[in-house]
Design a protein that fits this description.
ten-stranded mixed beta sheet, 286 residues, 9 helices, 21% strand, elongated
Length: 286
């Protein structure tokens, strides 16, 4: 990853976004672009005021970005820049990411706006619709590089892209790769309880064997020396939430497009739910 784009919304959490983005740029020897978008919805009534709202908002954003840029490590400044754009935040950021050929978009934790989210979704969610590059949501305090990473997989291309992005972002981290499958359901089969339990265990053992075989194939081209695997049975979001609580990762890695097969793990709603209320930093890839 050689070009990082950090979306700065100038709220109270943007300092941690800049700090994490700078740490990643330094570690990856990448250029960093700080980008703020002045939402054109805020300038609809511009003709009614003496001093253009657009000009004042742009000027204030430029001053704020200058301050953040001045605080960046000297090693990354020569190839880095700051940009103030006008437009719809998700579309403007997507266009800028394409223009810069960015490898990663970094955003801050979402702040709830119920009516806007109901009809339009969050900026992160809309960005993922327009961009093919990974998105990192910064939710934790970036006091150190990522050391513990939890990645979920359903063996889809999307989850593999997410895992590879996570391995690049956290080159020294220990990675726990989790697969969740739906346990066999025997509700409509007439057997005594002991027979049902025996059938369920047989089914579970068969599925776990298939999962382990596919897990080995899935990881064939990756650095397996720092990856451990875990298989869980149950509802996807609940299992992942339990895994996060148990292992306390600094980074959660998810794909957005699942597949049909042994199980369905990662669908958009699961990834978006973690972006909506991130338990830690969350990396999402298509």
């Amino acid at each position: 990853m050689k070009t990082l784009l950090a979306a700065i919304d100038l709220d109270q959490d943007c300092k941690r976004v800049v700090k994490r983005a700078a740490e990643l740029a330094l570690a990856l020897k990448a250029s960093l672009h700080l980008v703020h978008v002045v939402d054109d919805a805020l300038t609809l009534y511009e003709p009614l005021v003496e001093i253009p709202v657009r000009h004042r908002l742009k000027q204030a954003a430029e001053t704020a970005l200058d301050g953040f840029f001045d605080g960046l490590p000297g090693e990354i400044k020569p190839d880095s820049a700051r940009h103030v754009l006008l437009g719809k935040p998700d579309r403007a950021l997507a266009r800028k990411a394409a223009e810069l050929k960015a490898d990663l978009i970094i955003v801050g934790k979402h702040h709830l706006d119920p009516m806007r989210d109901l009809f339009l979704g969050t900026t992160a969610e809309r960005l993922l619709r327009h961009c093919d590059i990974p998105l990192l949501m910064v939710a934790g305090d970036p006091d150190e590089p990522y050391r513990q990473v939890l990645a979920a997989t359903d063996f889809s291309r999307s989850s593999h892209h997410a895992l590879q992005a996570g391995l690049k972002l956290a080159p020294k981290a220990q990675v726990r790769l989790v697969h969740v499958f739906d346990p066999p359901f025997m509700g409509f089969i007439r057997h005594d309880q002991m027979e049902v339990e025996s059938l369920r265990e047989h089914q579970r053992a068969r599925i776990e064997h298939e999962v382990k075989t596919e897990m080995a194939h899935f990881l064939a081209d990756d650095d397996q020396s720092r990856i451990s695997t875990e298989i869980m049975a149950g509802e996807t979001q609940v299992c992942l939430g339990n895994a996060v609580s148990k292992h306390q990762p600094q980074l959660l890695v998810l794909g957005t497009h699942g597949r049909q097969g042994i199980s369905r793990l990662l669908i958009g709603s699961v990834a978006m739910s973690f972006l909506g209320m991130p338990p830690c930093d969350v990396l999402v890839a298509r």
